[in-house]
Amino acid sequence: LPRAPRAGARVSGRARGGRAVAVTFLHAYTFRRHEEQAGALCREIGFEQVSLSSEVMPMVKAVPRGLTSCADAYLTPSIQRYLTTFRVGFDAGLKDLELLFMQSDGGLVRVDRFNGFRAILSGPAGGGHCTIAPRPSCRAPKPRDMQAALWLRA
Questions:
Q1: Could you give the 3-state DSSP secondary structure of residue 136?
Q2: What CA–CA distance (Å, rounded) separates 111 from 107?
Q3: Cα angle, residue 105 at apex, residues 151 and 139 outer, rounded to 5°
Q4: Could you tell me which residues are beta bridge partners of residue 150?
Q5: Distance between CA atoms of 7 and 45, rounded to whole angstroms?
Q6: Cα–Cα distance for residue pair 122/110, rounded to 1 Å
Q7: Facing residues of 153 across strands?
Q8: CA 81, CA 85: separation in Å to the nearest integer?
Q9: How far is CA 96 from CA 79, 93, 146, in A?
């Protein structure tokens, strides 16, 4: 990919307040290198959230892949802010526990891999469930903290 358009992209994207970007190239399902280069360029420009369709949903169909990467780019920053405030509400920020969140497909994923498009039906919309393994240093969560489906394991 040419590196020259960086200055124009910086002015048009970030200067207008953009913080997240979704990148979808038509054939990224089989050749992801160009999408990865575009993602690196977006990070260099200063976008905080870069969702690559080849990472978010590696499939042949470009339209669903693009829609999913857009949803991920839009939702992931909000999810990350929520998770940060969620963890702060517990002793030691839950650093001594393996924190897993339930995804839309019902599977569990580590908190650092929990992203926007897999959280669409999780949490309040998915009927949050919470199980905590008792630990002396871990205080019980307040009901307002149980807004996301999660599993805490000692």
A1: coil
A2: 12
A3: 15
A4: 101, 130
A5: 8
A6: 14
A7: 98
A8: 6
A9: 21, 8, 19
Beta strand ranges found along the chain (DSSP E): 20-23, 49-52, 98-102, 108-110, 130-132, 150-153
Per-residue pLDDT of the chain (154 residues; tens, 9 = 90+): 555 555 555 555 665 678 899 999 999 989 999 999 999 999 988 899 999 999 998 899 999 999 999 999 999 998 888 888 888 888 777 777 788 888 887 788 888 888 888 887 655 444 344 444 444 455 554 444 444 434 444 3
Tokens 């669409």 locate to 120
> Taking CA 76 as the corner, what is the angle to CA 8 and CA 142, rounded to the nearest 5 degrees?
145
Is residue 61 within 8 Å of residue 79, measured between CB atoms? no
102: β partners: 108
